From TrEMBL:
The protein, known as: Lrp/AsnC family transcriptional regulator
InterPro entries, per the entry: Dimeric_a/b-barrel (IPR011008), HTH-Siroheme_Decarb (IPR050684), Tscrpt_reg_AsnC-like (IPR019888), Tscrpt_reg_AsnC/Lrp_C (IPR019887), WH-like_DNA-bd_sf (IPR036388), WH_DNA-bd_sf (IPR036390)
Gene3D superfamilies: 3.30.70.920, Winged helix-like DNA-binding domain superfamily/Winged helix DNA-binding domain (1.10.10.10)
Organism: Paenibacillus residui
PANTHER family recorded: HTH-TYPE TRANSCRIPTIONAL REGULATOR PTR2, TRANSCRIPTIONAL REGULATOR, ASNC FAMILY
Pfam families associated with the record: AsnC_trans_reg, HTH_24
């Protein structure tokens, strides 16, 4: 991937609403060149979606989010992919990651209540063939997501380190 596309991706990651004209100005490129690069990135599915990071706790949102560690036995010929696909097709599932370490998949699930998430785990996730165990962790509060800090604290509380 060329340098211009990488720079465009970094800028769009910080602000997906930034226009091609401003990107071109910031990078010293032509607007048509930036528009063509963005179109290629979208076509190649490098840019998958433009999204907004929302602090749902400020919207009086009653969603419950859980992270579920899942241990599985990989399927012959398909490895982890076939089981991951079965899991990510459920509408409650927001993310699925293949992990190294003590468990195989990390599944992020959203529901309206703790009971709804627990029901998903016990009635839909756990019964899937080849799932050995699950461990559910409920998210109580988000402090930072996708590089965005949610707290309105302007003070820097980090300790000063000097040589």
């Amino acid at each position: 991937m060329n340098k211009l596309k990488l720079q465009i991706l970094e800028l769009l990651k910080e602000d997906s609403r930034i226009g091609a004209d401003l990107i071109a100005t910031m990078l010293g490129a032509k607007q048509a060149e930036v528009e063509a690069a963005i179109a290629e990135l979208e076509e190649e599915k490098v840019i998958v979606k433009y999204a907004t990071v929302v602090n749902w706790s400020k919207v009086n949102d009653d969603k419950v989010t859980a992270l579920i560690e899942v241990q599985i036995t990989p399927e012959r010929g398909h490895g982890f992919d076939a089981i991951a696909e079965r899991i990510y097709l459920y509408p409650e599932v927001k993310s699925v990651y293949l992990m190294s370490g003590a468990y195989d998949l990390l599944v992020e699930v959203e529901g309206r209540t703790l009971k709804e998430v627990a029901s998903f785990v016990s009635n839909k996730l756990s019964p899937i063939d080849r799932i050995l165990s699950t461990k559910t962790h409920f998210i109580l509060k988000k402090y930072k997501q996708d590089g965005i800090i949610f707290e309105d604290n302007d003070e820097d509380h980090r300790l000063l380190i000097s040589p």
